[in-house]
């Protein structure tokens, strides 16, 4: 909020100076607010998307230049058009509005136009899905896990605000160590210290299945320890095949009350890797308590969470 206030204060000062110079040059004494144009743009447009055409009362060949913007490279010019530059600047949770000032000149006279771009909030998860996965997400009910692609999972991890990864780290998931199998019909949780922070919404999950036609799997979470009090999060995972599988939870609306530990009930075999810095706990069947442990290995499972709810 403080940063946004400073940006807006700078915007007002710059506009005042610009209009002052313009009035000295051409005698125009119009209130600067007469040139303030407000535009609504949905959150997360694509880079290069059209925003507005810049009109001018000046005659002759015209040049257009950006003299101020609250986020550098958020807006770009294409002749007399405003277009989206850095699409990530159009994130409602970061910037509810953007300001940009355009100077128009014919070589002897100049005109200034100011734009306020109001960013319209959307479901951020929906925004990074496409095709069949977006349709499945739209059709899902709150509590349903929806299968998504690896690239969509990565987009959510990299582009949503305030993201934390729990369970296995990326380095552990993609180390050069070979994937090994462990038995199914057990509940598993890593004990590697990579937990989910307090006051976070858990909304996405990935893991390595050793088996095809995996069904009845349940994602779990414990706010007590990596050994006990695990309870299911959402509904059963959709049936899926071997390899890495990625899922997003529709309507995640419960915050963690304390540090939390990610778990999984796997009906069939799943994958682990050797890792001297890690261990995992497990229990027989779909259980809340994990009485046994294995040293020197990491379960290939990871969760995404955020402190900011960015979806419906």
Element layout with pairings:
Elements lengths: L1 H25 L9 E7 L7 E4 L9 E7 L5 E4 L2 E4 L12 E9 L4 E11 L3 H4 L3 H9 L5 E4 L1 H10 L3 E5 L2 H4 L6 E3 L3 E5 L10 E9 L8 E5 L8 E2 L10 E7 L11 E6 L3 E15 L7 E8 L1 E6 L6
Parallel strand pairs: 1-7
Antiparallel strand pairs: 2-5, 3-6, 4-5, 6-7, 8-15, 9-19, 10-17, 11-16, 11-17, 12-15, 12-19, 13-14, 13-16, 17-18
Question: Can you describe what's shown?
Answer:
It contains five helices and 19 strands. The two termini are 23 Å apart. It is α+β, with helices and mostly antiparallel strands and 312 residues long. The N terminus is likely disordered. The protein is elongated and about 80 Å long. Strands 10, 11, 13, 14, 16, 17 and 18 form a seven-stranded antiparallel β-sheet that branches. A five-stranded antiparallel β-sheet has the order 8-15-12-19-9. Helix content is 17%, strand content 39%. 36% of the residues are buried.
Distinctive features:
5 helices; disordered N terminus; 17% helix; 312 residues
**Portion of residues within helices:** 10-25%
Radius of gyration over C-alpha positions, nearest whole angstrom: 26 Å
What does the average pLDDT come to? 90
Order of helices and strands: HEEEEEEEHHEHEHEEEEEEEEEE
What share of residues are in beta strands? Answer: 35-45%
Structural class: alpha+beta
Query: Distance between the terminal alpha carbons, to the nearest Å?
Result: 23 Å
Shape: elongated
Question: Care to give the gist of this entry?
Answer:
This protein is of the alpha+beta class.
């Amino acid at each position: 909020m403080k940063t946004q206030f400073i940006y807006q204060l700078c915007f007002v000062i710059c506009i005042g100076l610009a209009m002052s110079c313009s009035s000295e040059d051409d005698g125009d004494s119009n209130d600067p607010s007469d040139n303030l144009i407000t535009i609504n743009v949905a959150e997360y447009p694509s880079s290069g998307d059209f925003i507005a055409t810049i009109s001018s009362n000046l005659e002759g060949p015209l040049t257009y230049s950006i003299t101020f913007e609250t986020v550098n490279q958020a807006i770009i010019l294409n002749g007399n058009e405003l277009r989206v530059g850095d699409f990530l600047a159009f994130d409602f949770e970061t910037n509810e509005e953007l300001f940009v000032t355009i100077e128009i000149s014919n070589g002897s006279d100049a005109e200034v136009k100011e734009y306020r771009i109001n960013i319209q909030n959307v479901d951020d998860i929906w925004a990074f899905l496409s095709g069949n996965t977006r349709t499945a997400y739209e059709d899902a009910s709150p509590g349903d896990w929806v299968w998504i692609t690896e690239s969509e999972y990565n987009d959510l991890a990299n582009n949503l605000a305030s993201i934390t990864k729990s369970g296995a780290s990326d380095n552990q998931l993609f180390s050069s160590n070979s994937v090994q199998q462990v038995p199914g019909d057990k509940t598993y949780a890593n004990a590697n210290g990579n937990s989910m922070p307090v006051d976070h919404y858990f909304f996405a999950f990935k893991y390595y299945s050793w088996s095809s036609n995996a069904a009845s799997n349940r994602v779990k979470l414990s706010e007590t320890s990596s050994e006990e009090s695990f309870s299911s999060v959402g509904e059963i995972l959709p049936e899926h095949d071997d390899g890495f599988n990625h899922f997003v939870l529709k309507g995640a609306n419960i915050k963690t009350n304390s540090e939390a530990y990610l778990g999984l009930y796997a009906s069939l075999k799943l994958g682990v890797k050797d890792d001297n810095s890690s261990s995992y706990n497990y229990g027989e069947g779909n259980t809340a308590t994990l009485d046994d442990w294995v040293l020197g290995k990491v379960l290939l499972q990871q969760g995404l969470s955020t402190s900011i709810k960015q979806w419906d």
